[in-house]
Amino acid sequence: xxxxxxxxxxxxxxxxxxxxxxxxxxxxxxxxxxxxxxxxxxxxxxxxxxxxxxxxxxxxxxxxxxxxxxxxxxxxxxxxxxxxxxxxxxxxxxxxxxxxxxxxxxxxxxxxxxxxxxxxxxxxx
Length: 125
Known about the structure:
By secondary structure, the chain is mainly alpha-helical. The protein has one domain (24-124). Helix content is 88%, strand content 0%. It is built from five helices and no strands. It has helices at 2-22, 26-71, 75-89, 94-101, 105-124. α2 (26-71) crosses α3 (75-89), α3 packs across α5 and α4 packs across α5 (105-124). It is rod-shaped and about 110 Å long. The mean pLDDT is 82.
């Protein structure tokens, strides 16, 4: 009787041992999911930081523009200066800005000189 019990126990243990190799390893799946989630999180954080830097740059540009625009005397001069600074910040050259606004190149340079000087000083800091 005891022999039979030992044989049954040994055969069931052997069967369970064999079955354990075919069963999926849930821990490795969870580790992989956690790693994927971590990578996605880091990528999203990187994208958010890039967007934040871009927005901060735009805000800084608008602050600089508004400071120079407020120095202009009339509202038409303010609007013209706003447009010239906006075109310059979009990397337009002086000739293109002059053609677009109907000003001369010298007038464009004169309007942008304080803005360019201020940007140079801030870049040195």
